[in-house]
Write a structure and sequence with these properties.
This protein is 33% helix and 24% strand. The two termini are 30 Å apart.
Amino acid sequence: MKKDEISEYKVKGYKIKITNDGNYLVYSAEPKYDFDQDPLVFTELSSIVFKNKKRLGKKILKFDELVSVLKSIFMWKVLEINNLPTGPDLFAELFIHKLIKLEKIIPLFLDDGVNEIYMDRMNAPIYVDHRIFGRCNTEIILEEEEIKSLLTRLKLEHPITVTTKKPSLKVEFKTNDFHMRISMDFPPLSPNGPTFNIRKFHKNPLKMVDLIKLKTLPSFLAAYLVEVVNLRKNITIIGEPNSGKTTLANAIDLYTPKHWRKIAIEDAIESINQTELGYKQLSIQVDSFESNRSLYTKTSEILKLLHRSPDWIYLGEIQSSEHTKAMFEALNAGLKGIQTAHADSVEKILRRWENLHKISVTDFLSLETIIIMKREILKNNFIRTIAEVYEVNANNSQIDERFGFLTKVYDSSWDKKRTLRAIEEESFIKEKIESIIERERGFQHHVVKKKEKLLLVR
C-alpha cells in the first residue's frame, strides 16, 4: 500500500520520514550513507578496527569514549575516501553505529522528537510515541544479536546483571547526543523474549509557554502555579504513567528564584540541569528498584535532606511505602518543593497513602497543592492536560467528604472566570489574585509571539 508522506526532517546522520499507510502513522529513518549498499567500505574499516583493537585498551569505555577511540583508529582511512555523502566525522559515526549493531535503533535515540520507544516481544516491530505525531509504528525489528549488543552496551555503562532470578533492569543511558531511561525485561518474566520501554529526556524541555500552547493548561492556571512556587508552597503532581508529570514539574521548577538552594533526588535524572542557567542545584541519583545495588536508596537520601539545608526539593517518582514515609517526614519537617507520584485521582493517591502506606490523614496537610494530570489516548496522538488542582486547607468549611480539607481551585471543565473566583474566594494565595491576572497577560503575550515566530519559520 502506498504511504502518504506527512512530514520529513533531518536528525544527525539520518533523514526521518513520517508517513500514513491508511491506518497508522509510520516512522522511518534513512541513514545518509547505507553501508549495505557498499559492503567493501564497511569491511575495510572493520578490518582496520580489528587489527588495532589493542588500542581500545582494557578499560571499560563509556559510549562517548568508545566513539572517540574508534575514530582515532580509522579516521585516517575515512579521510582518504572520495565523494563522501556527508562530513567525515558524521560518516565515521554512522559506521560506528553499524559496527556496534545499533544502527537500526540509534536514530530513535538521536531524534529529540521521539518521547518513548517500545518493543513488546521478540521479532515484533518497534513502535514509538512522537512529540508531535503521537504513536507511530515502525518497520524496525531487532535481531537477537542486536538486542544482545544493546544489553552489552548498557552493562558497560552500568554495573548491572540480568539473571533468571532478576530478569529486569532499569538504567540511565546518557551520552553527548542523547539521554534516556531504559527498562528491559527478560524471560522468564517476559515469556515471549526480551522487551523494553525507553523514555527519552529531551535536550530542549518544554517550558510553561510551550505547555500553554499545547493546551496542557490555560495561561491563567500557569500564572497561578508560578505564584504558588514564589510563595514556596509544596506541589504534588500525580497522574498515570506518561501523563506529563515530569514535564510539568520541570516547567514549574524554572520559576524558582535563582538564589534558592535546590536539591533533586531521582533514580533517573529527569529534572533539567539548571546550573547552566544560573540556578543553585544539586542532583542526587539513587538506585532504582531494578538495580542490583541498594547503596543509595531514595528513602535514605530523602531523609538526609534534613541535613543538607535545601530551600527547595524535587522528589521524582514517589513509589513505595518507604518513599512515601520518607517524603512526609521531610515535608512535615518543613521542607518545600515538588513531588511526583502515580495515580489517576486525588482520592486514590490519598487512600493508598493512608491505607497501604500507613500515613496519618493529618500529615496530608503538608501537601499544600495537588495537581492531577490526565492523558487522553487518541488513535494517533495523546492529549496531556491538567484535570484538577486542589489546595490542602485545614480550615476548609466545606467538610462534607472523607478528605474535606481539600479545596478545588481548578477543574478543566471550568472557565477562566470560575477559576479566578475560586482562587479569590478559597485559595491560600487569594491575596495574589492581581499578580495572577497580570502574569497571565505576560504568558498570553509570549504565546502569541511564539506562534508568530513559528509562522515566520514556516
